[in-house]
Amino acid sequence: MTYNFKETEQKWQKKWDDAHAFNVTEDKSKQKYYVLIEFPYPSGHGLHVGHPRPYVAMDIIARKKRMEGYNVLFPMGFDSFGLPTENYAIKNKIHPSIATKNNINTYKNQLASWGLSLDWSREVNTADPNYYKWTQWIFLQMFKHGLAYKKDMPVNWCTSCKCVLAHEEVVDGVCERCGSEVVRRDKSQWMLKITAYAQKLLDGLENLDFIERVKIQTANWIGRSVGAELDFRITVVGDTNSTLLNLSNRPDDESRADCHPPLRVFTTRPDTLFGATYMVIAPEHPIINELKDKIANYSEIQKYREDAAKKSDFERSELSNAAEKEKTGVEIKGLKAVNPVNNKEIPIFVSDYVLISYGTGAIMAVPGHDERDYAFAKKFGLPIVEVVKGGDIEKEAFTDTEAGIMVNSGFLDGLEVGDAKKKITEFLEEKKIGVETVRYKLRDWVFARQRYWGEPVPIVICPDCGFVPLPESELPLLLPNVESYELTDTGESPLSRITDWVNCKCPKCGKAAKRETDTMPGWAGSSWYFMRYCDPNNNECLASKEKLDYWMPVDWYNGGMEHTTLHLLYSRFWALFLHDIGVLSCPEPYLKRTSHGMILAEDGQKVSKSKGNSVNPDDMIDGYGADSFRLCEMFIGDFEKSTPWATSGMKGCKRFLEKVYGLIDIAKGGGVTPALEVKFHQTIKKVTNDIDALKMNTAIASMMTLLNEIYDAGSLTIDELKVFLTLLCPFAPHISEELWFLAGGKGMLSTGNWVSYDEEKTRENVVEIAVQVNGKLRGKITIDMDLPNDKALESAKSNERIKEILNDCNIVKEIVVPNKIINFVVR
User: What is the pTM of this model?
Assistant: First the structure.
């Protein structure tokens, strides 16, 4: 029979749709299994060959789990709000809402053509008012709990997108989305206090089945550090009042009129305090303005600050983290700091490698034991003091944080580093000049964009009442439909031009007020979409407690490595908050997280339409079929590693399926073919385990091997054909369904039962072993498994080639490793 893939695939896609084969409801009699794939941005003309890889892989997982008897939820939706869609709309001069609608239709047609077993009855769209009503509701709950606030701050400004970016959206000093330069601006911004959940986000990782690199990236981003926070008093050169220090009277002294505010620092190495020979503060540190009249070279400092403002946080953090990168700085003339443990005055520098947004914006510099400080001290000719013995500070800083004996450190001398940390911290706390502290690298989330295409922030700004939350009964606050949504050059949202929408009454006092015109970032809708899938049509709450309790947490979530830090961090934060206020019963939203490698273009570069190396999956499916396409996506290489696309692989997969289709012509009768029994059980075991381990390529390879053995045997039974089709079904569901039907199978194979194997029957009855003479391979023999050693030796000696070699030799020793090797030692 000839296989017509177009006719077969259209036939079974229609049958699945008509039967709602993959739609699920909550069934407490069955164990649930929630499979989640990151939903796409509908921000382009269509999906390229790189997109299907994770979708097909998770479809295979979903199909197998469904056949194993689980109640499987495998939903899909669209992350419609945000920069990708708006940038596409502006470029193509089309309204974002129209672009979203058109692109979603294209994406849905493509996804359907791949044969994915999705539950489309649960589709969500983050730009749908019925959806973003609950995004706004979550924001209001955060506002009411003190986790959403607005503050003036320096922000990352994309010169092309003309909006504020979160710190995480600046990559290598440019915009993550468009690649344009990012500069610093001062602006009032909405923030989410994710730092309040830093420890919970860190602790939660321990019991999650995330791949190790995801855990490491997340932990590094949160950046927990244990150390001490302490104050360095400031003296003004020539000011005799402020140089009179009393370490034990810090709180009282700060209230004196002649006392200048101290410089507070955080350090993970309080044990090295005696080695602090200078200080460095961030260019934005407020003490510069507070004491500008005392600074002799204020104009020089101001010029340096202006230059630093042109650099992004990323560029500056790169300077901070790399000792080999040259540091710049200016000493503040007229001010000194006082080391609190030895009362020595030390210089204060301004340098852009210190960030105001991390720590306190000031550091104590210990050049003897920090590579960055060492390089800075060498450049500016500053003292370098050894306080931990173990290295040679004439050559380099000694940076071992655990080993070494304290020297030149007063009452710490002779102590090991660990003991010194404890003793100095006790000293600082006793003298009330410091305290043990835990700090995090994580910063609060910039939660506002000066764009049109996003969720309106449901806050009214009243001259008398301040920031007033919109009553929940007025949600959703609809995004007004406007003709002009292009960006403003002033940095304000396009919504600011819509006066009829902006001007309103204060919900609290009734006086004239204005709406907030910033919109939420694209991350907002994607931070909770997995919950909405549980109950997508609920108008009373974001999802019913009963349905959330049934489906959550997600059992297996797959997505790109580029989203492991940001999206996982944000969505886990929202889930933890919703758990704390009683919406969600589980604190963690995902039990398992895996990530896939990218499919690159055939030239090995990243797929890009501008480079002309994009391959359209529609063309592949039209020429070879969806099943061949699915197999090729999975067979192309290790799922977790990036690999170039190869259209030539489509031909091989198509030939494999044509051979599979030919099985219907040779399948006869029932029962088992003795020559194939072991191989069938081995393949069932291999495919079952490989799917669970995301080793789709080796699972396919094992089915190809079995297929060859079937043809070598010349026949198989109908029962064996059905087993083979069951294994193949998650990978190539259309042809499997068709052959199942032709073989007389009952019902749809996709909703049938998975097959099991007998461990005993996976073991070969015979084994091929190597025969060596004096350690060199001389031949191979096939013998019965677990054959006694004397019988194995007889079989080896009777082999014509081995017999010839041993004929004129004196056998000194015979070595038998059962089922593996025989070695004759001869003279």
Answer: 0.86
For residue 467, which phi and psi values (nearest 5 degrees)?
-85, 120
Q: Are strands 643-644 and 599-600 parallel, antiparallel or unpaired?
A: parallel
Contacts of residue 452, Cβ cutoff 8 Å, sequence gap at least 6: 86, 96, 479, 482, 485, 493, 494, 495, 519
For 201-238, what is each residue's pLDDT tens digit? Answer: 999 999 999 999 999 999 999 999 999 999 999 999 87
Provide the token pair at 406.
Answer: 């304290």
706, two tokens: 């079995």
Pair of tokens at residue 112: 């359907």
Contact assessment for residue 654 and residue 684, using Cβ atoms and an 8 Å cutoff: no
DSSP of 94-143: --HHHHHHHHHHHHHHHHHHTT---EEEEEEETTSHHHHHHHHHHHHHHH
Which structure tokens are listed for 101?
């609608």
What are all long-range contacts of 496-505, with beta carbons under 8 Å and residues at least 24 apart?
504/460
SS3 state at 681: helix
Whole-number Å distance between alpha carbons of 724 and 736: 9
* DSSP bridge pairs for 187: 153
Distance CA 697, CA 678 (A): 21
Round to whole Å and give the CA distance between 797 and 115: 57
Amino acid at 492: E
Identity of the residue numbered 614: S
Instruction: Render pLDDT for 745-761 as a digit per residue (tens, 0 to 9).
Output: 999 999 999 999 999 89
